[in-house]
Amino acid sequence: MGRHVLERSPTSREIARRTQAKNSLSRHLQRVYPLSIQKSCSLLSLSSLSLSQNSNASSLNSSFSSWDTKNPVPLHKLFSSWESTEFPLGVLGKGTLGFDNLGSLRGREDSLDDVLQHEDECAEPGSLKRCSWITRFSDEAYVSFHDECWGVPAYNDNQLFELLSLCGMLIDHNWTEILRRRELYREVFAEFDYIAVGKMEEKDIMEISFNKELMLGECRVRCIVDNAKCIEKVAKEFGSFSRYIWGHVNHKPIVNRYKYPRSVPLRTPKSEAVSKDLVRRGFRLVGPVIVYSFMQAAGIAVDHLIDCFRFNECARVAEKSL
Prior knowledge:
Elements: H1 12-32, E1 36-37, H2 45-48, H3 55-63, E2 67-72, H4 75-83, H5 106-121, H6 140-148, H7 157-168, H8 175-180, H9 182-188, H10 194-198, H11 202-209, H12 218-238, H13 241-247, E3 254-255, H14 269-280, H15 288-297, E4 301-302, H16 309-320
Parallel strand pairs: 3-4
Antiparallel strand pairs: 1-2
């Protein structure tokens, strides 16, 4: 005869006990593992707003900008998305890696540094040593900007206006995309002559915003035009926009000495102070992260890594201006 096992139905007390234990475990796991991501672009600026945060890395970083429990994401999908990202094919840049603001990803920062170190070791013999976010896969326009402009003190008002405008575009695009279209931007914005741009009429704004090659929405174009008008006002008050903006650092470039990309900040107390004053004066698209990217590009802050061939060159230029 077969053995028949009679299963006793659980009592209401046992069911309640099991439910309580399950809920307790769930609360514990939520405290230990933040497995949810808030779908927000509030930290989008942290993704690509500096030369060292670009391409694939920017999309990765903006995805993990902040945590929330409203949109649960499975743990295996969370980490598989990192592993599927081909870091060398993107340009790891902002002059800053956005991962600095995500403390839970500190271990991931170290692995990124390993990737960048591997890129350096694979560089062609005799090639120039650059900041590690410049790789053999980097776009030519991106490399040229790093070698010729980024970190070089700029004092011309039109040049400063151009750099401020380009940094504002980082809200929607990365450096490579922007630099590929740089000549087009110069053409439609009158070589970034802030007086000419400030006089643009409605038809000019609409013509630029409808130009699909530029990839600029109407609101972005209006921001650039409005900022040109603000620069004109500042220039009248201080003699030049350059004198105003450099006055925030006592007319002395800030020369930092960072060894690793993760050490380069996304924003600083100084960029926050400058941002606050610019906003007070009517400027747009000038949050503290964008402002710090502008400071880096304009050489107000020299953030080339110390083993980059441009560090000493930019530092010497900065010392001459002291």
